[in-house]
Amino acid sequence: MKAVVFDNSGTLISRYRAIKDIQSGQINDHVSSIDLVDQHPHRALVVLQTDPATCIINARSKQTIYEFISRNKVPFDISYSSLDFDKTELLDLIKDEKTQVSDIQDTIRAVIDKEYNVQICSGSGFILNLHNGKIDFTITAGGKVFPEVPEVVEELKRRGFHIYVASGDRTKSLEQLASFINIPSRNVFGTANSRRKKEIVQELKKKYKVMMVGNSANDILALQEANLGVLTTQQDENPAEKVIKAADVVVDNIKDILDINF
Fold first, then answer.
1. Has this prediction a pTM greater than 0.85?
2. What are phi and psi of 98, to 5 degrees?
3. CA 89 centroid distance within chain
């Protein structure tokens, strides 16, 4: 039996990401959150497991992010970091951090203004410096399914492939994606960091011959672990060299995986 494991953002989804630099107050949309984490040895990307369009956007804007998470018991995960860090220590680390919910709300509005769906991608979060407990950036990502994706998934299923999604994105948004592309929600693994993606591929290899399809540094370990690692550049035509080296095949459109002899 064969299986395909897809990343989500940038692979199945055309993403738009608004990132607010807390120090300058500027909102940028031309930089990758993964690249920002990689630029500093102590950074981590934290994903809030709650609905940006209803919960966060309507939260009291002047409270700190720490107050919002702790008072409302908002679940969160670290979706990408080069460091091993116990997420249970995160709240203590940001207890005195002054970044406010309004800084996240600014990024939500920026994504909505671009008419991207904040439910079908990773939602909202922040990039934290684990060394000093400072929030460097707040982030919201929205997405649009690449137009070729439904056809590709249906053709793979027709050929007998089992379809899985392993992504650093928010779990609830991935469940909506699963419904949209008609795969079981149990086949979706949310807020999966690099090591978790590798573990997912390892487990699936006990039963399947596995193709991993991804697009960023968060996919490197899974690309290397899979029987075949496929890098898609549909979102980003200039991926990092280390991502290219991790892949066995590079395609520029998701539909091109149908032409791979696997």
1. no
2. -100, 0
3. 22
Q: Are 123 and 228 in contact (CB under 8 A)?
A: no
CB 11 within 8 A of CB 216: no
* CA gap 66, 93 in Å, rounded: 9
DSSP the chain: -EEEEE--BTTTEEEEEEEEETTT--EESSS-HHHHHHTSTTEEEEEE-S-IIIIITTS-TTSBHHHHHHHHT--EEEEEESS---GGGHHHHTTT---BHHHHHHHHHHHHHTT-BTTSS-EEEEEEETTTTEEEEEEEEEEEE-TTHHHHHHHHHHTT-EEEEE-SS-HHHHHHHHHHHT--GGGEE-S--HHHHHHHHHHHTTTSEEEEEE-SGGGHHHHHHSSEEEEE-SS-SS--HHHHHH-SEEESSGGGGGGS--
At which residue do the structure tokens 């995960």 appear?
77
The one-letter amino acid at 202: Q
The size of the chain, in residues, is 262
User: pLDDT of the chain along its 262 residues, tens only?
Assistant: 999 999 998 899 888 899 999 999 999 998 889 899 999 999 999 999 898 888 999 999 999 999 999 999 999 999 899 888 889 999 999 999 999 999 999 999 999 998 887 666 668 999 999 999 999 999 998 888 999 999 999 999 999 999 999 998 888 888 888 998 999 999 999 889 899 999 999 999 999 999 999 998 899 999 999 999 999 999 887 888 999 999 999 999 999 999 999 9
- Measured CA to CA, the distance from residue 257 to residue 262 in angstroms comes to 9
Alpha carbon distance 220, 226 (integer Å): 10
> What radius of gyration, in Å, describes the C-alpha atoms of the chain?
18
Q: Which residues on neighbouring strands pair with residue 256, listed in sequence order?
A: none
